[in-house]
Amino acid sequence: MINRFYSLLVTGLVLTVVLTGGARAESDSLDINKLIKEVDDLYRSEASYAELEMEIVTPHWERTLVMKSWTEGMDKTFIRITSPLKEKGVATLRIKNEMWNFLPKTNKVMKIPPSMMMSSWMGSDFTNDDLVKEFSLFEDYTYELIKLDTPATDLHFINCIPREDLPIVWGNIVIAVTKDKHLPVWQKYYDEKGNLMRVMTYAEVKKFGDRLIPAMMEMVPLSKEGHRTIIRYIDIAFDIEVDKEIFSLRNLRSMK
Amino acid sequence: MVDSSQNDVIVAKGVRKVYSDNGVPVEAVRGIDLTISRGEFTAIVGPSGSGKTTFLNCISGLDDVTDGDVWLGGRHLTHMSGRELSDFRRDNIGFIFQAYNLIPVLTIEENVEYVMLLQGVSSCKRHRRVTEILEELGLGGFADRLPTRLSGGQRQRVAIARAIVSQPAIILADEPTANLDSQTGADLLDLMRELNEKRGMTFVFSTHDTMIMKRAKRLVVLKDGLIASDETRK
Amino acid sequence: MLFKFAFRNVFRQKRRTLLTVLTMFGGFTLAALSIGIADGSYAYIINMFTRNQLGHIQVHKNDYLDRPSLYKTIDSYETIGRGIIGLEGIEAWAPRLYSAGLVSVGEKSATAQIIGIDPALENKATRFDRKIVEGSGLSPEPAHEVVVGNGLAEVLRAKTGDEIVIVSQAADGSIANDLYDIVGIAASGDDMTDRSAFYMHLADAQELLVLYGRVHELIVIIDDVDYVFEKTAAIKEILADPTLTVEPWQEFARSFYQAMQADLRGNWIMLLIVNLIVAVGVLNTVLMTVLERTREYGVLRAMGTRPFMIFRLVITEVLIMVVISLIIGILLSVAVNSVLASSGIPMPFKFDYGGMTFTRWYSEVNARSLYIPGITVIVVALFVSVFPASRAARIAPASAMRMN
Predict the structure, then answer these.
(1) Separation of alpha carbons A90 and C175, rounded Å
(2) Contacts of B179 in chain C (CB under 8 A)
(3) Is the pLDDT of residue C249 over 50?
């Protein structure tokens, strides 16, 4: 269960990483390799710090979590919830494939057991595994431009198929990217039978520092009616200095 | 139709019997005409294989004939069903077998009353008849014994008692003395002769015992399935 | 007369009769015991599952069992429970609240099934207190205490007195997490349950999961399991709520029920073997007897006995042996079954069924265990006797005359 929660938190981070990065190329002669690399790097950075909001909607309840997150490269992530009051101080640390969480109410650190890696949290399709195994479209997928039967003329559509030797659960992913800034508009995830499993929509393009990124992402899992999760960046700083102490169990326990 | 007068207990006409011995047809009886009258004391004799047992079976309804006709007590046996023959034997023929053939698990009384039981005679009447007959044959006091506790002669007396108890028209005896010593055999024959003379019971023997032949009033000799001689003595 | 004759015949070949009687008696007893043991074990297993765990009847929100959800709850369950216990023939009821969570003791974490129970009601219904193998049960009032399954305790290396943290998701979406004291370790006999069970006071569970006043399941224990369908109907009637599902154990534990039914069918194989033994034994005896008494039956036929009477004579002899066998068989089976019903017999090996481990077999004295093998032995014995008996009936009367 907790991992579901993680997934969502961390999805935000993953996406942060994915979406960060300059959207500079505007040439007409499209280099698809470059385009994919740009999408991959959009949210990536050597180190980052972000403040974000996660709004979770289910048929039974709606709530918004506010949190801070730190990343370093691809391997380290630290998240601390700041609101609402009940979850204030709840924190997650990921180093490579291992995850821990801290629960201030009980003052305990819990390690997520391997058996929980495929579980999800809060009705979203994100799993802990989504977080731990970060795949790169550029390196781990084969991709090609495709034409879709839509009136949108300002978008490129790219079909990405995972390489067979990788444990990726998706059959393929279709990405829509704007032609001008090369910013993602949506991503559709299909299973191996070609059924649409979830849709991620990007919006609210904003400039943070020198990067132009969509600040809002909405995830809709199609298998769960009435469920969706919205992540919104309030602030994000890329390529900054992050204290190595952040990614430690000691920091996890601290209430800062 | 043959004239089967009241006195002719057995009438056999052209009786043939062929049986199969391992697929080889054997003609045991090859056409016998014989009439036996009431009160006769007849011995059918002949060497082994002369067909006497087969003939006896045919005229007593124990076996069917291949050809010819048999009347017994005025009834034509040839066309009777198995069940009719069964009932007919029960009511008309008394059998005495060479090996006594008493039912070993039944007492003397039960062995003797068996046929009456089949006939549906009431139990008190059965008891009376059995007691009478056993007394008459010198078997009084043995009623509740099992056959194994009797001597051979006593057993054959029981067999005689069993054969005559329901007063059948004819008593067929197949080598009745073969298993007995000569004195006992003679006594038994005297007994049967007495029954024949006193009660007019009709006896037919199949035998090669000379003692029987001597006592028989009529001697029918069979040879190779045919009558070789038929002689009535006084 | 026929009977007397047959009866004496039976004792003519004492050894053969004894063997035949033993065969039928053995076949009967084997089948009677196997049915008794199967039924007894069946009842015992059902009891383990229902009486000690699942209840005879369960009430859920519709569809809960097929697609469980935290939100498919039974509201005002206390009123419903009072209504059910007011019915005739109801022994006990208990409410339960379920969820899943991640628990951890020290460095060890594991997934667990949260089972919120009312200790007093649960003790009465499923003797929860008897499942405690270490420490104590839950206090009657909520006290932040939990009892964990022995399998879970093993995974967590937990013992009584340890603190345990649980994290789950509450009904309002918030992170449910709290710290509890392990006061006891339970063994239900069901390994799967014991590997994940995290029992807590219903009120504690409701608070943790923010499900005040609500439960997921009501279990009902009835006085006589044979009336489970009637009682289910009666509960449905008083609930009169189309959003609630009331099911007897045969339905909510369908796969278990079907497995049991399949096992019971396995008994027919045993019965088949018994039939075969009886058939061969009786056929052999009767054939030998008929062969041996050819001359005697010939004499009977010559004297005017009808074929059908010979047939009846042979059949009667068989029936007499059957009756003797059955009388001894019934006496012995009832005696052995009733001994096994009360004390059971230890199995030479441990036997797992549906995650539960059984170490003893229990038997049951019932009519089934007598009339099924009884009728079987009679039918089989008569069936195989028909052929030799009709052969006896067809013996030529002339065979009485032949001297060789």
Answers:
(1) 9
(2) none
(3) yes
Pairing assessment for the beta strands B41-45 and A91-95 based on DSSP bridges: unpaired
CB contact under 8 A, A110 and C111: no
Q: Note whether C313 and C59 are within 8 A (CB).
A: no
Distance CA A215, CA A12 (A): 10
Pairwise CA distance, residues C135 & C160, whole Å: 6
What is the torsion angle, in degrees rounded to the nearest 10, for the CA atoms of residue C21, residue C26, residue C31 and residue C36? 110
Look up the CATH number of domain A2-253. 2.50.20.10
pLDDT digits (tens, 9 = 90+) for C357-381: 667 778 888 888 899 889 989 999 9
Domain architecture of chain B: domains with CATH: 8-232 (3.40.50.300)
* pLDDT surpasses 80 at A24: no
Q: Which two tokens stand for residue B205?
A: 């023997």
Query: Mean pLDDT in chain B?
Result: 88
Taking contacts as CB-CB distances below 8 angstroms, the residues of chain A near C171 are 60-61
> Which of A61-70, A126-135, A212-221, B111-120 has the weakest average pLDDT?
A126-135
For C401, nearest residue in chain B (alpha carbons)? B97
For residues B29 and B225, is the Cβ–Cβ distance under 8 A?
A: yes
* B104–C397 CB contact, under 8 Å: no
Biggest alpha carbon distance in chain B?
52
Instruction: For the beta carbon of residue A83, count every other beta carbon within 10 angstroms.
Output: 12
- List, for chain B, all residue ranges whose pLDDT scores fall below the cut of 70: 1-6, 234
Whether C396 and B62 lie within 8 Å, measured CB to CB:
yes
pLDDT of residue A117: 64
> For chain C, which residues make up each domain, given as ranges?
2-49+266-400, 63-241
